[in-house]
Write a structure and sequence with these properties.
alpha+beta; BirA Bifunctional Protein, domain 2; SH3 type barrels; 2 domains; seven-stranded mixed beta sheet; five-stranded antiparallel beta sheet; 5 helices; 26% helix; globular; EC 6.3.4.15; ligase; aa-tRNA-synth_II/BPL/LPL; biotin--[biotin carboxyl-carrier protein] ligase
Length: 246
């Protein structure tokens, strides 16, 4: 089993509103960074754009807080770092790499359904990365917004039951390794690896922005993490969007 990364603290709470909020409070209280927070129960989890994140007991709800340094605009690249680390951990747990793919900008899929989501929030000079994984249960489709990718849980998809603590052991080690590589080698190597696992690369997708919806071919990700969408009007560079599969 991977050894817990020595530089990272580990905090487990029985119940919290969200591990993102819990981590933020710990930072304000002077908790040394970096550290992980794992919640046995999360009662007010939040996903991207403030959407509610369902967290039945037995699923994974955790956040890591760190002080990444470097330009503020580069912090968002950690969504790719974390997605790769989470895939590493899931493959190690299941031994089934073909099950898992990555959806831009920050989802991990299993059997082409949503298994996990990742959320990044800045807290001063700190960055908090939240991870939610459907280990034993997935929300009903009716509870999701229209057009959302169907959810799945790991127990159903892979036929194994994994505890949040076991996943955290592997995820923390995998993230520490990949964060170190990002710092020393830059983003391009991770970008290329992420693309080898990208869902629907080279296929039609729908990208919804605040003011318009675009349909085109998913052509990859650039050096800043933006989605490259091939449309009849040419390549569109999208730093942020909600992606739906056509």
């Amino acid at each position: 089993m991977d050894v817990w990364p020595a530089d990272f603290g580990r905090i487990t709470v029985e119940e919290t509103d969200s591990t993102q909020a819990e981590a933020a409070r710990r930072i304000e209280a002077g908790q040394a960074l970096p550290f992980w927070v794992l919640a046995e129960r999360q009662v007010a989890g939040v996903g991207r754009r403030g959407r509610a994140w369902s967290m039945p007991e037995g699923n994974f709800a955790g956040s890591v807080a760190l002080r990444p340094g470097g330009p503020l605009a580069r912090r968002a690249l950690r969504s790719f770092t974390m997605a790769l680390a989470l895939r590493d951990a899931l493959v190690e747990l299941t031994g089934q790499p073909a099950l898992f793919s990555l959806k831009w900008p920050n989802d991990v899929l299993c059997r082409e359904r949503k298994l996990a989501g990742i959320l990044l929030e800045s807290r001063g000079d700190a960055l908090v990365i939240g991870i939610g994984v459907n280990l034993v249960a997935a929300p009903p489709q009716a509870a999701l917004e229209e057009g959302a990718l169907a959810p799945i849980d790991l127990a159903t998809a892979a036929g194994i039951r994994v505890t949040p603590e076991a996943l955290l052991d592997l995820l923390a080690a995998a993230f520490a390794r990949r964060e170190a590589l990002l710092v020393t080698e830059g983003f391009d190597a991770q970008r290329r690896e992420w693309l080898t696992h990208a869902a629907r690369l080279g296929q039609p997708i729908v990208a919804r922005l605040a003011d318009r919806t675009l349909t085109g071919r998913f052509d990859g990700v650039d050096g800043e993490g933006a989605l490259m969408l091939a449309t009849p009007e040419g390549i569109q560079r999208l730093p942020a969007a909600d992606v739906h599969f056509a």
